[in-house]
Structure formats: structure tokens, C-alpha cells
From TrEMBL:
Residue ranges occupied by any FMN-binding domain in the UniProt entry: 68-144, 168-244, 274-350
Organism whose genome encodes this protein: Streptomyces djakartensis
Listed name of the protein: FMN-binding domain-containing protein
Bias type Gly residues, positions: 246-258
Biased composition (Low complexity): 33-54
Ranges where the record places region Disordered: 33-55, 241-261
Pfam families according to UniProt: FMN_bind
Length: 352
């Protein structure tokens, strides 16, 4: 039998090797995660602003976002960490705003559910409403994320931003980090600035931050010479503490007394009415409202009389009903509507 020439054997071996490599490459899985992302595939769920995955259920109301044409506030309904419904509980109204709101809000609601995040496009012709919607939506998602973190273990650090507190010299807003039921860090993300305010802010805010961490609540002394900044700081700080989910925040800051770990104080978002803002704070224990109070209500002129007459009755009704489904007080229609709206916001935050 004729033997193969050595050169021929080398050529055949080389061809076989090349064929094997081609075959292996053709068997490479089509679903290459890196390739999919590089080709413009979806970003992983850990992206900022995305709806938190986990056991978040129920309604979550974002903070009211003020726009040039009025307030926008978004409420989400969550199921297993996903947005199942989005709605605007506040939106600009009156005149041309009615038409813009009616056209844009349903589309923004749909976009929020579809995107599962606040990364949605603005509706053409509704720039301000869209911006406010997205801001409030992000606030609701942040609250849901904080709630999800608390359910996974109270030892997890979580960051909560308080509501903006308006002062005579400018807004103050506080952000805190809470771990193991204690404030581990406090910072002012907004503070008065410009002119004399720059010096006061640079001197007082670091001391306020230290006081918040040391006290573990909002019950500390104002900084001398910075009365307004201190008052705004403490107000925003208390708002942040109210937002800390049960089991994750400071029991003192949340308003629960010693030996009453289940009690929790929550402050609802500000509801704007024709005669002034209304804001409700509730104490919840054992799944029931044990106390309700209005920390803001219309005042001045005729409003003083209406407020003094209606608010105590609304407080009693909230405790008796255990929810926001209470009757308006006769002669105080606007105050009652604002009270119920802020009360519902507080209940949403409390998970009720």
C-alpha cells in the first residue's frame, strides 16, 4: 500500500484543525449577555431609578413636585416590586392646564408602568407637567426601595431624603443614612445661600449634621445665629425620619416611646388647597391610627376660625375610621379635601 507523503499529512491535519475551530464557533450560544448589552440590549435591573425588585406591595405616594403651573404628585400601586398602576393625585389645573393635564397625565401613567422607572420621555406640549411627574415618580420609587430594603433586614443601611423646608432665607433639605435603627450620617442637600447666608450655612450646617447623628432624632438645640436654618433643618430631618420604614429607623426620631417599638409616626405629603397647605401627621400602632394631627392648615382671616373648628373633628374622624374615607366637615370643604389627601399619603407611607 502506498504511504502518504509527509507534506500531504500535514496539510490534511491543518485542514481538520481549522474545520474543528469553525464548528466550535458556530456552536457559540446566541444569548451572550455581554454581546447583548454591547449591541444595545436592555440594561440590567440594577439601573438607577428602576422599580425595586422584591416584596414591595401596596400603594406608595411620591412627594409633591412643584412646577410653574401647579403641583404634581404621583401614587404608585406595587405588586412584588413592580409598578402595576400609576396615577397623578395632583396635577396642574385651571384654564389651559386642564386640557394639558387631561392629555398628558394618562400617557405619563402608561409610560411609568411600561418603563418600570422614572426614565420616561416628556410628553410634547407638557414639559413642566412631565418634569414634575418624573420627579414625584422618582420620589415614590425611592420610598418603595427604602421599604424593600427594610423588609430584607433592619440592619441594612438606607438613605432617606426629607421634604424641603422653606425658610425666610431659602430652602433647607436634609438627607440621612440610617443603619440598625440609628442615624449614621446626616447632610444638608439644600441650604440658604448667597450673601450673609453663605457664612451662616457653612458655620451652622456641619454642627447641625453632628447634632442629628448624636441625638438620633430631631430634638436638639438650634445653632446660635442660625435660627431659621436650624428650624428648617429640624423640620426636614423629622420628615426624613418619618419616611424611614418601620424596623429601619430611629424609634426616637419616629416618635415612638420607650417600650412601644410598634408605634410609628408618619407625616403625609403637603396637600395644596385654595386657602393654603394642609399636612397631616399620624401615629400608627398595631396597624391602627392611634393619633392624627394637622401640622399645617390654612390660616389667616376667616381660615383661622374654619381650621380651629374643622381640624379637631377631622383628627377624630381619622382615628375612628382608621383610613382616609372620612366625611368632609360642613363649611370646610377645601380643608377637608386637603386633609384627606395628606392623610392618604401618610397611610401609603405607613403601608396601610
Amino acid at each position: 500500500m502506498r504511504k502518504s507523503h509527509p507534506v500531504r499529512r500535514a496539510v490534511l491535519a491543518g485542514a481538520a484543525t481549522v474545520s474543528g475551530i469553525v464548528l466550535l464557533l458556530s456552536m457559540k450560544p446566541a444569548s451572550d449577555p455581554g454581546g447583548a448589552q454591547a449591541a444595545g440590549g436592555q440594561i440590567p435591573p440594577a439601573a438607577a431609578g428602576q422599580a425595586p425588585q422584591g416584596g414591595v406591595n401596596g400603594a406608595v405616594t411620591g412627594d409633591a413636585a412643584q412646577t410653574q403651573y401647579g403641583a404634581v404628585q404621583v401614587r404608585l400601586t406595587m405588586s412584588n416590586g413592580k409598578i402595576t398602576q400609576a396615577e397623578a393625585v395632583q396635577a396642574p389645573k385651571g384654564g389651559r392646564s386642564d386640557q394639558i393635564t387631561a392629555s398628558s397625565v394618562p400617557r405619563l401613567n402608561q409610560a411609568a408602568v411600561a418603563a418600570q422607572s422614572a426614565d420616561i420621555d416628556a410628553v410634547s406640549g407638557a414639559t413642566y407637567t412631565s418634569a414634575g411627574y418624573k420627579k414625584s415618580l422618582q420620589s415614590a420609587l425611592d420610598k418603595a426601595k427604602a421599604s424593600s430594603g427594610a423588609s430584607q433586614g433592619s440592619g441594612n443601611a438606607q438613605t432617606v431624603t426629607g421634604d424641603v423646608a422653606q425658610t425666610q432665607y431659602g430652602p433647607v433639605q436634609v438627607r440621612i443614612t440610617v443603619a440598625g435603627g440609628k442615624i449614621t450620617k446626616a447632610e444638608a442637600v439644600q441650604a440658604p445661600k448667597g450673601g450673609r447666608s453663605d457664612q451662616i450655612t457653612s458655620s451652622s450646617v456641619p454642627r447641625l449634621n453632628q447634632a442629628a447623628v448624636a441625638a438620633g432624632n430631631a430634638q436638639f438645640d438650634a445653632v446660635s445665629g442660625a435660627t431659621y436654618t436650624s428650624a428648617g433643618y429640624k423640620k426636614s430631618l423629622q420628615s426624613a425620619l418619618d419616611k424611614v420604614p418601620a424596623g429601619g429607623g430611629s424609634s426616637q426620631g419616629a416618635g415612638s416611646g420607650a417600650g412601644s417599638a410598634q408605634a410609628r409616626t408618619v407625616t403625609g405629603s403637603v396637600a395644596q388647597t385654595q386657602y393654603g397647605p394642609v399636612q397631616v401627621r399620624i401615629t400608627v400602632a398595631g396597624g391602627k391610627i392611634t393619633k392624627a394631627e394637622a401640622v399645617q392648615a390654612p390660616k389667616g382671616g376667616r381660615s383661622d376660625q374654619i381650621t380651629s373648628n374643622s381640624v379637631p373633628r377631622l383628627n377624630q374622624a381619622a382615628v375612628a375610621a382608621g383610613n382616609a374615607q372620612i366625611d368632609a366637615v360642613s363649611g370646610a370643604t377645601y380643608t377637608s379635601a386637603g386633609y384627606k389627601q395628606s392623610l392618604q399619603s401618610a397611610l401609603d407611607q405607613a403601608g396601610g
